[in-house]
Amino acid sequence: MSTLVVDRTDLPVAPGGAERLQALAGDAADAIARDAFRYEASPGTRRYARVRCAPDHDVWVIVWGPGSAVAPHDHGGSRGAFAVASGALTDRTTTPTGRNRATVVPAGGVLAIDADTVHGVANPTGVSAVSVHVYSPPLASMAFYDEELRELWREDVA
């Protein structure tokens, strides 16, 4: 994974509940979408940058190369939402009862993520995708899991 440098001071602020996080992610994706053609990643890779960090939330931009994915993970107790600015992503969520759900999020789509959700995200298409992620409280750690939802490792997020 490589870091993407983005300086966006025009992104929205001040989240509240899940609906507000979805609105923030959607608004930020709209702002990014105007420039989305500039954001690309090599096949199988992702680039990401935290573009805002406030006391109560943070905002990330992730560029997904064709065929890229992130393993099942949690957000360390943060709730969140992501919006797709360009391309399409597939979110695969596994519930605590072991039920799997796949949701395709197209450009302009927004998906809320509960604080206790374990999910993976993938770009199964042949073109780069760009998404905006909002977390509240700010993302501090992520745990990664195997297919049986056994925690493999935890990473602190800087």
Helix content: 10-25%
Number of E-type strands: 12
Query: What's the domain count?
Result: 1
Counting DSSP H or I runs of 4 or more residues, the number of helices is 1
Overall CATH architecture: Sandwich
The percentage of residues in β strands lies in: over 45%
Sketch the topology as an H/E string, one letter per element.
EHEEEEEEEEEEE
CATH class: Mainly Beta
CATH fold naming: Jelly Rolls
Structural class: mainly beta
Shape: globular
Largest sheet, spatial ordering of strands: 1-2-3-10-5-8
CATH superfamily: Jelly Rolls
The low-confidence runs, each spanning 5 or more residues with pLDDT under 50, are 1-15
The pLDDT mean sits at 83
Q: Radius of gyration over alpha carbons?
A: 14 Å
Mind describing the biggest β-sheet? 6 strands, mixed
* Span of the ends, CA to CA: 15 Å
Short description:
By secondary structure, the chain is mainly beta. The protein has one helix at 18-33, and strands spanning 2-3, 46-54, 57-64, 69-73, 79-86, 88-94, 100-106, 110-113, 118-122, 129-136, 141-145, 151-156. It has one domain (2-140): Jelly Rolls, CATH 2.60.120.
Folded structure, characterized:
Strand 11 (141-145) and strand 12 (151-156) form a beta hairpin. Mean pLDDT is 83; it is low at 1-15. The chain has one domain (2-140): Jelly Rolls (Sandwich), CATH 2.60.120.10. The strands form three sheets. Strands 1-2-3-10-5-8 form a six-stranded mixed β-sheet, covered by helices on one side. The protein has a four-stranded antiparallel β-sheet with strand order 4-9-6-7, with no helix packed on it. Strands 11-12 form a two-stranded antiparallel sheet. The longest helix has 16 residues, at 18-33. The chain contains one helix and twelve strands. It is globular and about 40 Å long. It is mainly beta.
